[in-house]
Amino acid sequence: MSALTTAAPGAAVVDLDLAKLRRDPYPAYAELRRTAPLAWVPSIGRHLLTRYEDIVRAEKLPEVFSSREQGSLLLRTVGPNMLREDDPEHRRLRAAAEPPTRPRQVRDLWADAFERTAHELLDRIEGRGEADLIADFAEPLAAANLALVLGLRNASADDIADWSRAMMAGNGNYADDPDVWLRAEQATRAIEEAVAERAEAVRREPDGSVISSMVHAAEPVEVAEIQNNVKVIIGGGVNEPRDVFGVGAWALLQRPETLGKVLKDPASWKRVFEETARWISPIGMYPRQLTEDYEIAGVTLPAGSRVALVIASGNRDESVFERADEFDLDRPHRPHLAFGGGPHFCMGAWVARHEVSAIAWPLVFSRLKGLRLVADQDDRMDGWVFRGLTSLHVTWQAP
Q1: Strand pairing partners for 4?
Q2: Least buried of 135, 265, 284, 336, by fewest C-beta within 10 Å?
Q3: CATH superfamily of 12-395
Q4: How many Å apart are CA 161 and CA 129, to the nearest integer?
Q5: Which long-range contacts (CB under 8 A, 24 or more apart) does 185-190 make?
Q6: pLDDT for 145-178, tens place per residue?
Q7: Any alpha helices (H) in the chain, and if so which ranges?
Q8: Can you give the residue ranges of every domain in the chain?
Q9: Which residues contact 130 (CB under 8 A, 6 or more apart)?
Q10: Peptide linkage before 37 cis (omega within 30 of 0)
Q11: Residue 247 CB partners (closer than 8 Å, separation 6+)
């Protein structure tokens, strides 16, 4: 199946500026949903599918909308991996890697260590009365927790965070910047070395981690496969919890009345997580390639067509979410798309949910008294393939 790099007959051709998309993709997505729900975008080199209903339909047809996209940026960045595989290969790799990330394992194996790490990070900053909660708390928390779950005892939180940033930049490098590719290659080589060392150690002494689970899987998994899939997990496993934490905290600090209600009802932190992930999706899109001709959104796509499922747009679809552009914890529940769907539903969703909604937010808002945003800081949202706050500067009453 060769990849088609032109618009399907009958598809609208829409020019989008990638710099504008990075600043704020949502106005462009709203226009696409209204006028061209399947549009060829030359600057991205694929068709964008932007309506909720069409995205859900595509996710339910992995045999048509294949993850095995030729020339995918993710494949170039990390090599063959489960995100760019279809079943049965995808199922074999996922079954090997997934057990340590299931809800019971998160609660029984990892939750206490997650909480200790959060307290340690807060101990470092509590007396200062000011911090950037992304750089000083959310990113090192997500990175340290991920190192633990993966079994990378030979990597620091800083290593994990640096590797994640470098690979995520590669995976979103639609501008084909050579410096971005160089940093991504350096990160992937370092991960390969760390994983090979730990795979050898857990072969002798299993430790319940993802690497250990893959080494001892019922269906054999090669070390190279473990390395590539750990790269993928490091990519998403830092930015998703970090960005949901930052956006949710920022949204609440701008809405004191909503924050007050949440603080009186700790069970509502779960709702904060789901609404934050819907409102500003940490992963905005992922690619698919058609295995056969298929009609969707009024256009027949030929086999080989490249498509992006723009889940950030689906999560703002007004036909599904009333007042979709608003952050609203009281909206009627409708399933969002932030963690994908079908066989590729995000493996780390339960880890992210627990570390952010059960630990990070409750501890930050209980320990940092009088927490508020610093008004004159340039805390801005950035990105469209991946989106989150670049920083979150806050102050509080130091003890």
Answers
A1: 305
A2: 265
A3: Cytochrome P450 (1.10.630.10)
A4: 24
A5: 187/162, 187/163, 188/77, 188/78, 188/79, 188/163, 188/231, 190/159, 190/163
A6: 999 999 999 999 999 999 998 988 887 777 889 9
A7: 18-23, 26-35, 52-59, 73-78, 89-97, 103-105, 111-125, 139-150, 157-171, 178-204, 210-215, 223-253, 256-264, 269-279, 311-314, 349-353, 361-367
A8: 12-395
A9: 374, 393, 394, 395, 396
A10: no
A11: 276, 279, 280, 282, 381, 388, 389
Please tell me the distance from the alpha carbon of residue 349 to that of residue 398, in angstroms, as a whole number: 34
Instruction: Output the DSSP codes for 211-243.
Output: HHHHHT-SS---HHHHHHHHHHHHHHHHHHHHH
Which of 122, 362, 379, 378 has its CA nearest to residue 247?
379
Name the residue with tokens 């070395």.
193
What is the side-by-side order of every strand in the sheet holding 372-373?
130-132, 393-395, 372-373
What pTM was computed for the model? Answer: 0.94
- 170-200 pLDDT, tens digit per residue, is 877 778 899 999 999 999 999 999 999 999 9
Burial per residue of 115-127, b for 16 or more beta-carbon CB atoms within 10 angstroms, e otherwise: bebbeebbeebbe
What is the end-to-end Cα distance of the chain in Å, rounded? Answer: 63
